[in-house]
Every structure is written in C-alpha cells, then in structure tokens.
Specification:
6-stranded parallel β-sheet, alpha/beta, 7-stranded parallel β-sheet, binds uridine-diphosphate-N-acetylglucosamine, 365 residues
Amino acid sequence: MISQKTVVHVVGARPNYMKIAPIMDALRAKPAVRQLLVNTGQHYDQAMAGGFLTELHLPTPDRDLGVGSGSHAVQTARVMIAFEDICLDVRPDLVVVVGDVNSTMAASVVAAKLVIPVAHVEAGLRSFDRTMPEEVNRIVTDRLADLLLTPSSDANENLRAEGVPPERVHLVGNVMIDTLCRHLPLATLDRVRDRMPIVDAQYAVLTLHRPSNVDDGETFAGILRAVHTVAKTMPVVFPVHPRTRGRLREFGLERELDGTILTEPLGYIDFLALTSHAAVILTDSGGLQEESTALGIPCLTLRHNTERPVTVSHGTNRVVGTRTADIVNGFERALHATEPKQIPELWDGRAAERIADVIDRFLAG
Ligand code: UD1
C-alpha cells in the first residue's frame, strides 16, 4: 500500500474553475496523491459558479464554505475562518491555490500560519498597480507560497526581482490554456447562434467587471460610448457580469447600449464558442487576454496596464486604456492588424501535467 499525501485544492470564483480542473485530472495519475476540493462560494450564482463545476467535470466539492459576497475584508475573513477549520480537520500536506482572487489569498494566509505548504498556480504575474485588489492578492500569495508555478517567463523575472528563492519557482506554462485546448472542439458557433443574431467573424465580444471600470460612472459611460461606436460597425455581444448589471442600472446607462446584444453570463463552452469566432474582443478580464492570444483573436484590453505582458509582446493583445477615443482607435487598428502573432512558450495544453509532476516530486521529497 502506498501511503498517500493529501492535497487540498481551493476554488472560489469563476476564473478559478478552469484552472483547477486540468490539475485535478493530471493528479489523478499520481497514486501517492489523495485530492480534496474546497469551494469557498465567493461566487454562488449558477451562471458564475455551479454551472462551471458541472461543465468542466469537476468533482462535487468535498466542502462548500458558502462565503458569498461582501467587502474585501468581510469576504477574505469569512474564507479564512471557515478554511482554518478544514485545515485543522483534514491536515493537508499541500494546499493548491490558483489565480488572484480573494479566496486565493485568504486560503494561502491560513495554510501558511498552520505551516502547511502552499502551491500557487499562476504565480509571479504583476500589474505593478496596487489599486487593483488582485495585485495585493498576488503579492501576498506569492510571498507565502512554497511552490510558485508560473505561466510565462516574465513571471519568473518578477519573482527573481522580489528575491524569491529560485528553487521554489517552476515555469509550467498556462493551465487555463489546457482547458481551452480540451474544449475548443466542442465550441461550435451553433451553440450560441440560435440565441443571438451573429455571423461568424463579424461581431465583437465585450466583457467588463473591474471595479475601476464599472464602479465609476464617468469611466463606465466613456467605455460604453466607445462600444456604441463599435456597434455601428458590427454587433457587440455583451455577457453581463452581476456587478456590471447592478452598475448599469444604478448609473442609468442601459440606453447607451443600442446595437449591443446583452446576455446573462454564459457557460464556459458557450463563451468559448463566442470568443473563438469573434472578429475582436474588448475586455478588462485577465483570463480573456490570455485566451484571445491562444485563439489568435485580436483583443483590446480596457485598462491602463496588464499583469500579462506576454499577451502584448507575443500575442494579440493591445492595452488601450478606458478613454472613448482610444478604444475606438484601438478597434480600427485591430480590424486591420496584420502583424504575425506567436503563442507563448508552454501554452501548449500540457501545463497541468507539468504541475502534477512538480507537486508529486515536492510531496515525495
Ligand atoms: C471577482 C475577483 C476578480 C475576478 C472576478 C471574475 C476578487 C478580488 N475579485 O470579482 O479577480 O476577475 O471575480 O468574475 O476576488 N455577484 C453575484 N453573484 C455571484 C457573484 C457576485 O450576484 O455569483 C455580485 C455581487 O453583488 C457582488 C458582485 O457581483 O457584490 C461582485 O462580486 P465579487 O465576488 O465581489 O467580485 P467580482 O467583481 O466578481
């Protein structure tokens, strides 16, 4: 009988599920590893959470913390209180966290204080903008992690500059692209075409949810004015995040959206169907910058910086800011872009296998 080590995976918000699914799959091939899945419940709507668990064939979570929404302090504290009980009960040999959401940081702090090793998947990304809550989460999580699993070499450089011991850092590639590669064959446009009047490669996709863009009425209105102009050239499909839906109502901005096709948040495969057939993507999401680079679809990032510079240097991404004229100019340029694009190193659909190998060796050592 092999003596097994317990790995606890933590997920909480929509962008976490597609990162953890291939890792759990790859670790199933390691007989020395027993896996548990903890869902913090930071996101709780079926469209933001439950649907993803089923669609990505994640196991039913072993524990659901049900923390829900709240201020950053409240949400983080609720995860910490509930996750501490789980760690004391289960005594994991390793806690795996992904990305940069509040649940990621909260679980890392709890594990580190109980002297349980932490593996951070998507380590080392930096926007160098501490007004972004995710940047604080990234810095704290990386400071505490024992295994820092990076998606691209710029992340290794950031960690080196911060003095992280190099033996903790492993360049494994982008695990979200593993999930994309697996599901792309299923992501046909037929899945969404019966719900919206769109023609292959003749529409734009918009997503917005960053507090800096949607919580400020003027910034939000400026972005929507640009979207209004884009919509005169091609339909814009806008799956609306719950935070954004609330702000649209609060600021009375729905009228700016003539020519835009509003939908509820979509499931993973439907959304991939939509993005992989789009002419252009406008977004303030981190993950979508990477997915559009992997798909070769032009992307306009409606922010002033990015923690994913490889999507600009190698991929299809342009960071255009949030001013109306800059977004419209970026859109015109993206439509006529011809420069050759590259898929970044190790964004090859096999990052999870490399992560599983690193974890297996760590637990054996
Ligand atoms: C969180 C992450 C962000 C990630 C995003 C993906 C942090 C700091 N932010 O931001 O990095 O890109 O998820 O979506 O962790 N709401 C619902 N139903 C839900 C979830 C949220 O109605 O299932 C509403 C609530 O009113 C909530 C608001 O949306 O107040 C925002 O949710 P919240 O969890 O605070 O952060 P996100 O903006 O989703």
